[in-house]
Structures are given as C-alpha cells and as structure tokens.
Amino acid sequence: MADLELLGVDRATTAYRCRPGGPWSRLGPGVVKLDNGPQTRDDRCQAAILHAGRDAVVTGIDALARHGVRSAPTPSGPVHVLIPAGRRRIGAGLMLAERTHRLPSGSSGDVPLAPVARAAVDAARRSRDRNLVRTVFADLVQHRHCTVDQLVTELVEGSSRGSALPREVLREIVDGVRSVAEATAQRLLRRAGLPVPLLNVRLEAPDGTFLAIPDFLFEEAGLAWQIDSREYHLDPTDYERTVRRRSALVAAGVVVVQSLPSDLRTRPAEVLAELRRAHAQAVLLPPPSVVVVPERTDRPAGPVPSPRAAEL
Predict the structure, then answer these.
(1) Of 142, 183, 242, 265, which has the fewest beta carbons less than 10 angstroms from its beta carbon?
(2) Can you list the domains of the chain with their CATH numbers?
(3) Which of 116, 126, 260 is nearest to 184 (CA)?
(4) Dihedral in degrees, nearest 10, Cα atoms 158, 163, 169, 171
(5) Separation of alpha carbons 16 and 22, rounded Å
(6) What is the 3-state secondary structure (H, E, C) of 177-238?
(7) Are 61 and 48 in contact (CB under 8 A)?
C-alpha cells in the first residue's frame, strides 16, 4: 500500500477498490493485488516477501517446489519466510516468519528463495512425517539438487529446534540409504541372518565399463538386491535405464533379486525367505565378472568441521 500512496493512490481509494466485489483484493497486511482473480500460490509467495520486507527469503516447502524438487509436497498454508534476526513481523495467516542470524542470500527472481539444502532442512524441522523427510532428502541427493555435505552443514550450523527427525534421516543417508524403500529394506536385513551387504556401490566390468549401482550387494555371493519403484525415485527414463543395467548385471554373472516396496511392508517374511534362498544358491555359483568400486561421492569426505557434528 505504501507504493500505491507514493503513486498518489490514497488509503480510502485503496480500501474502496478492495471492497467485496471490487476490482482489487487484499493479500495480506499492507499488500494489495491489483485484480480480483483467484489468489495463486505465487501471489501468496510474492505477498509474503513484500510483507516481510527487505532481505527476506522464502524457504521450506514453497522454496523446494519453486526449485523444482519433484518430491516436495504441494505447498499450503502460510508461506515460510526467513527474516533478519532483529526484525519483527506478524504473519497474519499469510506467512510463517522465522527470524535467523544465518539469513541466506536469496536467489534472483520475483521471489527470492533460500538455497535447496537450507529450504529442505527448514521444511524437515517442521515435519513429523519421517517418510516424507526421507523421500525429500533422498531425492535431493539422487537428483543432485544438493549434496549430503550441504545438508549436514545446515543441520550442524542451523537451529537445533525440531532437528531430531532430520538428523536421524540424514544418518540413514550418510550410511548409504537413498530412498524410503531402501530404509525399510535395511531394517528387514537386520533379522535376515545374512552377511552385511554393501550399499549403493558401483559395479564395473573388468574393462572399466559401468554396469550398475545396486541398492544392496552381497559381495561374497555375487548377489544384488534391488528395490524397484517408480514411486520413490524413478521416472520412466530412469526405469528403462534400470532394466538395461539389470540385464548387464545378469550377463556378468550377478544374481539379481528384485523386491517391490509394497512387498517389504506387506510380505516381509516372504521377501526375506526369497532373499535367503537366492543367497544360498548364489554362493554355489562361480564369482561374477565384476569389479566393486565404492560410490561415496555424495558423502562427507571427513568429519564436519564443527563441535556439533557428532550430534548427527
């Protein structure tokens, strides 16, 4: 409204034009939309930034969605906004204003956004849905929106409020678990009575040709266990690539067991029985013609340089 006054539009005129059925509408305290059409999420994000003031940035679910993170849920409710620590703003239902001493520089555009890692951690700190946090974190790492290092840094250096759940999930990812289904599978393996498998390692042919990165590899048996799911982390193109890589593994002599995420939940005993049978048969076969190359480029190279790193 201050901008309208600078243009010579007084408050009475603005109030009249924002009346029910009028040509304008109010988006929030002091923020006016110069039409009376439906208010979009983009309208709410822009209004939240205008109300929050200079240097404010959108974070959380809205920022993830605008960064193109496809696993982010559809934003709803108040827009999560970061503002300087010394500023006070009342959200009035439009925004959730979080004061911070670690205010990031927002990306360019009509709505400045927090970096992906910061937005993800801010969203995770306000979630009680473990599977949602797993899915978002795994998606970020798999599709290279950010690295595990960056997520670790945000958790270590940021607010500890609400950080217990994202810390537990990040621990799983640092251990090599990259999807909700893989986390479920890892829990099942603890009662399988089988040797501990390698997680997400790169398999190559003896000549260095890339073959695949199976979810779990029982190296002593040449057995790969793959959790197949488009829902969690595969688009159609990914799925086609997975089929081709599975064929390459079989051709190289690797025994491949596939399980559906739904089976891990509804038929865990049958899944484990199948896995044990496959392992017993695989150890009797000649070793496959593959080379195991640890795949850890997305993991921290060493201890996080902070006294709180051990809290992860």
Answers:
(1) 265
(2) 1-39 (no CATH), 40-174 (no CATH), 180-293 (3.40.960.10)
(3) 260
(4) 60
(5) 7
(6) CCCHHHHHHHHHHCCCCCCCCEECCEEECCCCCEEECCCEEECCCCEEEEECCHHHHCCHHH
(7) no
How far apart, in whole angstroms, are the C-alpha atoms of residue 144 and residue 154? 16
Asked if 147 and 304 touch (Cβ cutoff 8 Å), the reply is no
Residue 231: other Cβ atoms inside 10 A = 12
Is the pTM higher than 0.85? no
Cβ-Cβ contacts under 8 Å for 184 (sequence gap 6 or more):
261, 264, 265
Q: Which amino acid is at 310?
A: A
Token pair listed for 103: 């205010």
pLDDT tens, the chain, 312 aa long: 566 666 667 778 778 787 888 888 777 777 878 887 788 899 889 888 888 888 899 999 999 999 999 989 999 999 999 999 988 877 777 889 999 999 998 776 789 999 999 999 999 999 999 989 998 998 898 888 998 889 989 998 988 889 999 999 988 877 776 677 788 888 889 888 999 999 888 999 999 999 988 889 999 999 999 887 554 444 455 667 777 888 889 999 999 999 888 788 889 999 999 999 999 999 999 999 999 986 544 443 333 333 333 344
Cα dihedral 98, 103, 109, 110 in deg (nearest 10): 30
Q: How far apart are the first and last CA of the chain?
A: 45
